[in-house]
Amino acid sequence: MRIYKTSDYNTLSQKAAALIAAQVVQKPVSVLGLATGSSPIGIYKQLIQWHHEGILDFSQVSTVNLDEYKGLPRDNVQSYYYFMNENLFKHININPESTYIPDGMESDDAKECSAYESVINNMGGVDLQLLGLGYNGHIGFNEPADNFAKATHCVDLQKSTIDANKRFFASAEDVPKQAYTMGCGTIMRARKIVLIASGAEKADIIAKALEGPVTPQVPASILQFHPDVTIVATADALTKISGETI
Ligand code: GLP
Question: Is pTM beyond 0.85 here?
Answer without folding.
Answer: yes
